[in-house]
């Protein structure tokens, strides 16, 4: 019996091995390991795929968030609204620039920010919002962008888990997540829907001036070599990773479709388990399912996780501790409201295997083990 994996990176690699090996060999033959032609080509093709004017590549998504905030020229003490239910990178990027992360609650159905909670966190010091499109599902960007326009706020999308997700606006237009705000930040961490073989990230924007500024910050503050006009940093996507991503980008829609089909199978297989809540896909959104995350009722999450581990089924908890309870941010953040939904989610969420190589037979095994636990 084959072992189950949360993400089957080896299986995905083997499915496109010839293309990957050829692309990597080309880079090795050219020996242009930094800023090689593949890096520029990938940025151009990702912009075409996403439907935006500019893609600026960088070292990782945390860098992308920090560079984006820096490019907006915010001032010390300015506040940036983020969800408390997310990974620390969003808060980290804000705090590193001496800005204030304002942590607000999320919608328990989508795991994402919504207007109600953004309004609860808004103050006279608010300058930006970072909607995190968690687990592959886009926030309701119509209401977020409308609120931002009304109050002259910047919007940076944390698109680390949702590249390829499609958002349908109220006017009927369809756009990719990460292209709706001023800047969209992507992660190419290996487990993402579009993942490289190491670290990588990018920023997407339709603003010509902003794109140039993002590139300048990421390139030591240079627009011209050895002419440092501003203080920047060194954050870049190396050529080998770009070559891998160039290949995978051609398969991204197929990868997402495989994840969507797997999610639909899980929905069907687990529909009769009253003790869990399966992910809800909102009407405005074509979910890309970077994760398939259950909510386990009645405090049984940890027991289910332990049982599944005994049965050879891997699981992960994203995230076990809210941002507002992380020691690092105790003195530098503001908590805007009671975070009841966030606290409940941290105690109940459980992600089960989700990847492009997941088979119906494997999903049936996972489903059977979940059923077995609740029938004991």
Describe this structure in words.
The protein has helices spanning 9-15, 17-30, 37-50, 61-71, 89-96, 115-121, 141-151, 208-218, 239-269, 301-310, 340-348, 360-375; strands at 54-58, 79-83, 100-104, 126-129, 154-158, 166-168, 174-176, 183-187, 201-205, 222-224, 227-228, 276-277, 285-286, 292-296, 334-335, 349-352. With 376 residues, the protein is an alpha/beta fold. It has two domains: 9-246, Aspartate Aminotransferase, domain 2, CATH 3.40.640; 252-375, Aspartate Aminotransferase, domain 1 (Alpha-Beta Complex). Strands 1-9-8-5-4-2-3-15 form an eight-stranded mixed sheet, sandwiched between helices. A hairpin with a 2-residue loop joins strand 10 (222-224) and strand 11 (227-228). Helix 4 (61-71) runs parallel beside helix 5 (89-96), helix 4 (61-71) crosses helix 8 (208-218) and helix 9 (239-269) crosses helix 12. The two termini are 24 Å apart. The model has no long low-confidence stretch (mean pLDDT 97).
CATH topology of the largest domain: Aspartate Aminotransferase, domain 2
CATH superfamily of the largest domain: Type I PLP-dependent aspartate aminotransferase-like (Major domain)
The strand count comes to 16
Measured by DSSP, the beta-strand proportion falls in 15-25%
Count up the helices.
12
Q: What is the helix/strand order?
A: HHHEHEHEHEHEEEEEHEEHEEEHEHEH
Supply the CATH class of the largest domain: Alpha Beta
Apparent shape: globular
Determine the structural class based on helices, strands and strand pairing.
alpha/beta
- Largest sheet strand order: 1-9-8-5-4-2-3-15
* Main sheet specs: 8 strands, mixed
Mean pLDDT: 97
Give the low-confidence spans: none
Report the CATH architecture of the largest domain.
3-Layer(aba) Sandwich
Number of domains: 2
First and last CA, distance: 24 Å
Query: From the alpha-carbon coordinates, what is the Rg to the nearest angstrom?
Result: 21 Å
How much helical structure, as a percent, in the residues? 25-40%
């Amino acid at each position: 019996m084959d072992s189950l994996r949360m993400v089957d990176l080896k299986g995905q690699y083997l499915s496109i091995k010839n293309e990957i090996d050829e692309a990597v060999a080309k880079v090795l033959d050219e020996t242009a390991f930094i800023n090689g032609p593949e890096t520029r080509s990938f940025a151009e093709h990702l912009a075409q795929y996403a439907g935006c004017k500019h893609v600026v590549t960088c070292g990782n998504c945390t860098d992308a968030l920090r560079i984006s905030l820096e490019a907006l020229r915010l001032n010390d003490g300015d506040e940036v609204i983020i969800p408390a239910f997310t990974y620390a990178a969003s808060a980290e990027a804000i705090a590193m620039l001496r800005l204030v992360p304002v942590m607000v609650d999320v919608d328990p159905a989508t795991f994402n920010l919504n207007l109600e909670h953004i309004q609860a966190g808004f103050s006279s010091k608010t300058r930006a919002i970072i909607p995190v499109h968690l687990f592959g599902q886009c926030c309701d960007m119509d209401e977020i962008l409308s609120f931002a326009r009304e109050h002259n706020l910047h919007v940076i999308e944390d698109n680390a888990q949702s590249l390829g997700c499609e958002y349908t606006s109220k006017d009927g237009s369809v756009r990719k997540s990460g292209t709706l705000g001023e800047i969209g930040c992507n992660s190419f961490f290996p487990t993402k829907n579009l993942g490289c073989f190491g670290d990588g990230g990018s920023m997407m924007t339709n603003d010509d001036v902003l794109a140039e500024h993002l590139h300048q910050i990421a390139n030591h503050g240079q627009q011209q070599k050895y002419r440092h006009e501003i203080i920047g940093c060194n954050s870049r996507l190396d050529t080998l990773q770009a070559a891998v991503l160039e290949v995978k980008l051609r398969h991204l829609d197929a990868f997402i479709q495989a994840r969507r089909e797997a999610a639909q199978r899980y929905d069907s297989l687990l529909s009769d388990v009253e003790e869990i809540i399966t992910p809800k896909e909102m009407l405005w959104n074509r979910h890309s399912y970077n994760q398939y995350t259950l909510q386990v009722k009645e405090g049984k999450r940890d027991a289910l996780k332990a049982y599944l581990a005994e049965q050879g089924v891997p699981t992960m908890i994203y995230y076990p501790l809210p941002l507002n309870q992380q020691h690092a941010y105790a003195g530098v953040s503001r908590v805007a409201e009671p975070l009841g939904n966030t606290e409940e989610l941290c105690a109940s969420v459980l992600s089960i295997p989700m990847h492009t190589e997941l088979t119906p037979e494997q999903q049936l095994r996972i489903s059977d083990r979940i059923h077995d636990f609740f029938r004991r």
